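Structure in, sequence out. Go:
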């Protein structure tokens, strides 16, 4: 298996990308977009199957939104992080290519015959939300161009999944309900026990993402035996009988659910679970088929995972539901009352009609939700539901055609996803309650056109309305922002600032009530489009409205400046282009002294290079195309590598390459610095998880440390890569440290993440301020270090900084070591650690690993002292 980091241009697949872009801008349902995406992945990559999955945080599962693969039957499988191609792409948060699926990846049982494939993660607003993959059932070599094309498609699909949490949960519940209903129906139709056994095991694997599933049944004359096993690698223990005195029998048939985990995440060695040991299982669950007070179990449903996964209460509840369903079908000793309880609690409507339309069965929790139950047996459906003509017509049409039908229908106050089948002289209805899912879709439609924070039209809706107006007449657009709104965030807090934005949007919509549209583009940017008035007149009205509101609120003590970008288009123009021109004019206004900048050809030519950099930066952040190099930090006493500093590099198409001291401030001005920080943190932690074997430090900005959500974000990313906090250090400049919220830094430090104060000496903090910082070291500003051997003043300043650091219990780092003379000088002045080109240049992860091996070998031989 190889992880793909280098990107190359893609010349093919334009039509596929076009299809997905069109779908992303027009489809309200992300699952519909996912279906378009997988169809295009299959077509342009020539693979046999493709999949899109969304990470359900509550379930801790990758839930499929769309699978276009003829080899995968219903119900569609779920995945654990790290399980299979799609799970591995999510876990690594990077593109993954495999040419030998069986030997390179942990095989999910649901995809037992996949041979090769590629997968990439999906992101929404810088957050990891899922993965997309293409898979083949024959050997296949994928190129870097294939990976690039899949990443381009992923860039269109990912943002649509940012609003999927509510809908994905509803779809997951609907899938579970439908799978259980199908299990009941097909189990009743099964011709033999073996068919039932395989059906139960397959359903369990697909719903719970298990690698192994099977039933163990107990017979009086032979003991306990496995049957209906799915996902097994070996055959030697299948159908083996265990006596009543065997530990396996005693454990599995104790009458209680049991969870067993292999020691230290390895595999089982104990004879207590020989079937798990034979299959390299890390986590096993056994659930009795018939359980209850005083009731001996006659069998068990057993599930196994080859990864050390987390089982939530919801997962265990589903396990027990499957076991209960299985018991009703395969254990002859189960009573009729137990079976009725299982059916009555199934989250579906189960109804059977005879040839005369008389109800012969009516059960299920969904039936009870609409006021139906067993008391309806013997009555005509038209008598029971006289006010539901649509349902009655559908049943009548299915009976007349002797065919099956599937549709969504409102029955009383619930919405049912209904299947009607006509066979053997009767009619069968299976209805899944999808009321919550439909409510989630309605909410999604609102979110597709409305800004979630302000309730104003969002960017997509702004473009739509402007496009409609441009069909008839010319349109003026003003995009405005409150230039120093970050200072408002810092002054009043994020919650109060959000409320301020809501009120600000409401005030703007009220004041410019003759506009085509007043909407929020994002952040503190608002867009206003109008016809029939001068462009600058419109812009002045927008400025006056925003500034008047800000002056009368909590931000009145701060210097608030409204900047505007203006653009105008004649009838028949392009709405997207018009909005882009206004936004580009706003970027120019932000950097200059003019409060209002109108877009025209001369402005475009004059600022084209800067705008090109800004546009490419946005694209690079959306596509996560930054890379990292690492520079070691050396212990001056022992010569050991104490950590490496991760330094962001932008391999952009712009020449010459854009330096960090250019693109980092630009990201801050564009409001994208948090996205850049998260991307760099993910890259660094992914390398650490891949075996970097040395702590890594990541630089964070003043904006990051003002965010009270920073500790949670950092700990979540560490957990996502299964890393201890001690592998990470966060570096922030002295200026940022002085402005930071102390409780934010304290929360990070208390969690075990080290903090370093960078560029120390530029601001010369007060000792009182330094004393409050939970930092472990001070990194001296390189301007003092590089002249320390020739400037007595700089040497005195370095010595003073060392004394301050040591007095506060901190180590002192000298960076910018360019030669041996400077190295010896900082060592004599008492510095503890050093970093610079003389010791090691920044290098990529592969080169760093080789350098570390050589450095440690030199240290062991006694020649590694710097």
């Amino acid at each position: 298996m190889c992880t793909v980091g280098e990107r190359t241009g893609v010349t093919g697949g334009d039509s596929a990308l076009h299809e997905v872009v069109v779908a992303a801008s027009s489809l309200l349902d992300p699952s519909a977009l996912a279906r378009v995406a997988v169809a295009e992945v299959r077509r342009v990559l020539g693979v046999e199957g493709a999949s899109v999955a969304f990470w359900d945080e509550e379930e801790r599962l990758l839930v499929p939104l769309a699978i276009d693969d003829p080899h995968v039957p219903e119900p569609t499988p779920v995945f654990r992080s790290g399980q299979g191609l799609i799970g591995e792409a999510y876990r690594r948060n990077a593109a993954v290519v495999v040419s030998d699926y069986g030997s390179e990846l942990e095989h999910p049982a649901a995809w037992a015959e996949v041979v090769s494939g590629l997968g990439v993660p999906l992101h929404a607003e810088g957050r990891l939300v899922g993965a997309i993959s293409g898979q083949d059932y024959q050997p296949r070599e994928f190129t870097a161009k294939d990976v690039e094309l899949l990443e381009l498609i992923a860039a269109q699909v990912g943002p649509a999944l940012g609003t999927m949490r509510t809908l994905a949960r509803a779809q997951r519940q609907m899938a579970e309900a439908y799978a259980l209903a199908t299990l009941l129906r097909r189990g009743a139709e099964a011709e033999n026990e073996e068919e039932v056994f395989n059906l139960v095991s397959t359903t369990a694997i697909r719903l719970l993402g298990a690698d192994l599933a099977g039933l163990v049944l107990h017979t009086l004359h032979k003991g306990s035996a496995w049957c209906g096993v799915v996902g097994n690698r070996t055959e030697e223990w299948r159908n083996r009988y265990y006596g009543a005195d065997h530990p396996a029998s005693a454990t599995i048939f104790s009458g209680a659910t049991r969870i067993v985990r292999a020691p230290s995440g390895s595999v089982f060695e104990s004879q207590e679970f020989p079937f798990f040991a034979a299959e390299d299982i890390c986590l096993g669950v056994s659930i009795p088929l018939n359980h209850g007070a005083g009731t001996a179990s006659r069998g068990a449903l057993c599930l196994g995972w080859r990864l050390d996964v987390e089982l939530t209460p919801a997962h265990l509840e589903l396990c027990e539901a499957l076991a209960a369903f299985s018991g009703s079908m395969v254990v002859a000793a189960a009573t009729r009352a137990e079976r009725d309880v299982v059916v009555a609690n199934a989250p579906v409507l189960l109804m059977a009609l005879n040839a005369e339309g008389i109800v012969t069965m009516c059960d299920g929790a969904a039936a009870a939700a609409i006021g139906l139950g067993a008391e309806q047996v013997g009555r005509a459906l038209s008598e029971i539901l006289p006010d539901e003509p649509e349902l009655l017509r559908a049943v009548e049409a299915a009976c007349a055609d002797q065919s099956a039908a599937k549709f969504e229908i409102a029955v009383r106050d619930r919405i049912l996803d209904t299947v009607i089948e006509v066979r053997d002289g009767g009619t069968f209805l299976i209805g899944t309650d999808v009321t919550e899912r439909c409510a989630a879709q309605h909410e999604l439609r609102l979110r597709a056109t409305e800004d979630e924070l302000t309730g104003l039209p969002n960017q997509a809706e702004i473009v739509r309305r402007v496009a409609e107006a441009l069909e008839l007449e010319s349109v003026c657009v003003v995009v405005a922002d409150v230039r120093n709104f970050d200072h408002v965030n810092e002054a009043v807090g994020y919650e109060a600032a959000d409320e301020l934005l809501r009120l600000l949007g409401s005030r703007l919509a009220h004041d410019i009530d003759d506009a085509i549209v007043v909407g929020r583009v994002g952040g503190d940017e608002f867009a206003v489009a109008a016809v029939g008035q001068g462009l600058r007149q419109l812009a002045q009205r927008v400025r006056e409205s925003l500034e008047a509101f800000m002056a009368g609120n909590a931000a009145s003590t701060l210097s608030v400046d409204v900047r505007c970008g203006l653009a105008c288009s004649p009838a028949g123009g392009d709405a997207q282009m018009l909005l882009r021109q206004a936004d580009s004019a706003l970027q120019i206004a932000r950097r200059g002294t003019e409060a209002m900048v109108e877009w025209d050809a001369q402005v475009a030519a004059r600022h084209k290079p800067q705008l090109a950099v800004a546009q490419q930066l946005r694209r690079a952040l959306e596509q996560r195309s930054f890379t990292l190099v690492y520079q070691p930090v050396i212990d001056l006493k022992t010569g050991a590598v104490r950590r490496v500093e991760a330094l962001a590099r932008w391999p952009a198409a712009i020449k010459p390459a854009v330096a960090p001291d250019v693109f980092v401030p630009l990201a801050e001005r564009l409001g994208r610095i948090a996205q850049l920080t998260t991307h760099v943190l993910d890259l660094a932690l992914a390398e650490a998880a891949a075996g970097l074997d040395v702590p890594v430090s990541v630089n964070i900005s003043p904006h990051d440390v003002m965010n009270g959500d920073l500790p949670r974000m950092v700990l979540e990313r560490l957990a996502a890569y299964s890393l201890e906090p001690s592998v990470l250090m966060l570096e922030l400049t002295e200026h940022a440290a002085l402005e930071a919220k102390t409780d934010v830094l304290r929360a990070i430090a208390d969690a075990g993440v080290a903090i370093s104060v960078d560029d120390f000496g530029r601001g010369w903090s007060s000792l009182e301020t330094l004393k409050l910082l939970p930092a472990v070291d001070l990194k001296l500003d390189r301007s003092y270090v590089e002249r320390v051997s020739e400037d007595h003043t700089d040497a005195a300043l370095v010595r003073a900084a060392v004394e301050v650091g040591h007095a506060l219990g901190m180590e002192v780092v000298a960076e910018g070591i360019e030669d041996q003379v400077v190295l010896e000088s900082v060592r004599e002045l008492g510095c503890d650690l050093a970093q610079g080109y003389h010791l090691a240049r920044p290098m990529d992860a592969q080169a760093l690993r080789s350098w570390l091996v050589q450095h440690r070998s030199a240290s062991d031989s006694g020649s590694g002292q710097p």
